[in-house]
Amino acid sequence: MNTAATATTATTATTAAAATTAAAAGRSYPRTIDCNGTAVHIDVLRAGDEAALLAFAQALPAHDLLFTYRDISQPRVIKAWIREAVERQRMPSLLARLGGDVIGCTSLIHDDFSWSPHVGELRVVVGAEARGLGLGRQLIQESFAQALALGLEKLVAQMTTDQRSAIAMFESMGFRAEALLAGHVRDREGGKHDVVMLSHNVAEVAARLSAYGVGE
Ligand SMILES: CC(C)(COP(=O)(O)OP(=O)(O)OC[C@H]1O[C@@H](n2cnc3c(N)ncnc32)[C@H](O)[C@@H]1OP(=O)(O)O)[C@@H](O)C(=O)NCCC(=O)NCCS
């Protein structure tokens, strides 16, 4: 196959993959959401988003990255993320953009071949200048809908214990502290930080929605 044909095939596959992810979530992407009067563009992560996502991650304070398992300000980590989310369809991820710039993102990590195929880990981060507009809450709701569509039964989210606003937000959405991992992450200067793991029983929500006839 020539280069142009390969590129066309790759683009078609990427578009189809994005559509599949959106369909699986039961919501359509791309779409625009209202964040306190600001129109924010939400879409599934695509192959062409690598540079914008890396620029976003590199502009975040390093401390805000400690909740991610790997350092997303590293180009190779972003590449691996895109491979998992776009090519392998194993990590539903969303990007929020304002005027073309990425201002927030989510990802839902789950592994059908692990001993916890029913569990998903939700990750969300919003850029410092876009916080307090309600974007974080809406991104979690989107990710939550993706988890429901995938049939996940339990969601977890982890963050350093000093991320008070993140903990307050997750708790207001029904997550509860389940574990405290002492000195679990190490920052670039070598300082260790405690991590709290919050969890949510998604299956219970799905059962409640079904009892009310929602989503049938
Ligand atoms: C957590 C995070 C995504 C929230 O993003 P955001 O866009 O600012 O959140 P929202 O504007 O939707 O606010 C969500 C709620 O938190 C509340 N909140 C915001 N800042 C707060 C603070 N400092 N203290 C207490 N509550 C706070 C808001 O009042 C809002 O509640 P409301 O909807 O009832 O008014 C963002 O702070 C972040 O990226 N933090 C660093 C990364 C992180 O720790 N992520 C979590 C790991 S999964």
Question: Describe it for me?
Answer:
37% of the residues lie in helices and 29% in strands. With 216 residues, the chain is of the alpha+beta class. It has a single domain, classed as Gcn5-related N-acetyltransferase (GNAT) (Aminopeptidase), CATH 3.40.630.30. An eight-stranded mixed β-sheet has the order 1-2-3-4-5-6-8-7, with helices on both faces. The N and C termini lie far apart (44 Å). Residues 1-25 have low confidence and may be disordered. Coenzyme A binds next to strand 5, helix 4, strand 6 and helix 5.
Low-confidence stretches: 1-25
Q: What is the number of independent domains? A: 1
* Alpha-beta content class: alpha+beta
CATH class reads Alpha Beta
Quick check: average pLDDT?
A: 87
How does the major sheet shape up? 8 strands, mixed
Spell out the CATH superfamily: Gcn5-related N-acetyltransferase (GNAT)
Contiguous helical run count:
6
Beta-strand residue percentage: 25-35%
Q: How do the strands line up in the largest sheet? A: 1-2-3-4-5-6-8-7
* Rg value: 17 Å
CATH architecture: 3-Layer(aba) Sandwich
Overall geometric form: globular
Helix amount? 25-40%
CATH topology: Aminopeptidase
**Total beta strands:** 8
Report how far the terminal alpha carbons are from each other.
Answer: 44 Å
